[in-house]
UniProtKB/TrEMBL annotation:
Family of this protein: Belongs to the MetA family.
Role this protein plays: Transfers an acetyl group from acetyl-CoA to L-homoserine, forming acetyl-L-homoserine.
Keywords: Acyltransferase, Amino-acid biosynthesis, Cytoplasm, Methionine biosynthesis, Transferase
Official protein name in the record: Homoserine O-acetyltransferase
UniProt site (Important for acyl-CoA specificity): 111
Length: 326
């Protein structure tokens, strides 16, 4: 079943050129089902590129999904036209009375700042608190994941001596977990970040479980025991050329940047990179949407009645997630 997005959203033509069909709202309304409702809080500067990357993964589900886009009012986007934002995005006060099956909070290039120094931090925390009662499951990406872990669980971040930049192999902590069902025991994930969470602080939060991790760069996929919150430290949504574009951007700007790890063949940036994470990215988003579809109440407004308070006991963060489901 295709995703339901506006006909003139720039991502629509790109997806259709890749043989990914996006259904028109008029056609979707004739289908006698309740589609999943998702909202994407897009904090990335190049919003159209991020929209396309995320919609590409959402579209691989057999479910019909209706997408809303959200932006913060307290920050002015300088890399996306105001016409695009006004046409396709809404502010929090316009959506706060709605309920959603799922939400995605993207990363943002503000990791060099303390969380409280980010100009939209107060608004973001209000949205994250709202998501606990108005969204069944929220998926956080990279800085969005670090910010949510800090806000909800007081897990701090630390500045890394060298940027984590490239394609890093991750090992599953539980090969039978629902969210990573179908994953190989080792799976690649793109990373591009200057900070990491405090792993020792993570281990102290008994409600959180790590589903995959790397011995060199730490935890990769983190979840609450009920999957109401999912934290992705990397960028499964990245396209084949995304890291190359980041690399050459920094080279042109004269910034110190290392060649992305395990990305270019023979570490030669003049060679075309090989896409090695697509199947796992598709599986992750498909598993997430399938779980949300099966678990969200049909009367979506009753979500707030089943929220689980932060701090309930579970296994240690380094334990196996399946221990939560006796």
């Amino acid at each position: 079943m295709p995703i339901n997005i506006p006909n003139d959203l720039p991502a629509k033509d790109i997806l259709e050129s890749e043989k990914i069909f996006a259904i028109a709202a008029s056609d979707a309304s004739r289908q006698d089902i309740r589609p999943l409702r998702l909202i994407i809080l897009n904090l990335m500067p190049k919003k159209i590129e991020t929209e396309t990357q995320i919609l590409r993964l959402i579209s691989k589900s057999p479910l019909q999904v209706v997408i809303d886009f959200l932006m913060v009012r307290s920050h002015e986007s300088k890399n996306t036209s105001s016409d695009h934002l006004l046409k396709f995005y809404e502010f929090f006060d316009q959506v706060k009375d709605r309920y959603y099956d799922g939400m995605i909070i993207t990363g943002a290039p503000v990791e060099h700042l303390a969380y409280e120094d980010v100009d939209y931090w107060q608004e973001l925390t209000e949205i994250m608190d709202w998501s606990r009662s108005h969204v069944y499951s929220t998926l956080h990406i990279c800085w969005g994941a670090q910010a949510a872990l800090y806000h909800h669980y007081h897990i701090p971040k630390r500045l890394l001596p060298e940027k984590v930049f490239g394609i890093y192999p991750q090992r599953l902590c539980d090969e039978y977990d629902f969210l990573t069902n179908g994953f190989d025991e080792i799976h690649d994930t793109p990373h591009s970040r200057h900070t990491a969470i405090d792993e020792e602080a993570l281990r102290q939060v008994r409600q959180l479980a790590v589903l995959s991790r790397s011995d060199t760069i730490g935890s990769n996929i983190i979840v609450t025991k009920d999957y109401r919150q999912i934290f992705l430290m990397g960028h499964f949504e990245y396209g084949k050329e995304t890291l190359a574009q980041e690399y050459w951007r920094d080279v042109r700007l004269g910034k110190p940047i290392q060649i992305p790890y395990r990305y270019f063949p023979d570490d030669d940036p003049n060679k075309e990179p090989i896409l090695t994470w697509r199947s796992h990215a598709n599986l992750l988003y498909r598993n997430w949407l399938n779980y949300v579809y099966q678990m969200t109440p049909y009367a979506i407004e009753t979500i707030e009645l089943i929220q689980e308070p932060i701090g309930t006991s579970g296994k240690d963060a380094h334990g196996y997630a399946h221990a939560f489901r006796k």
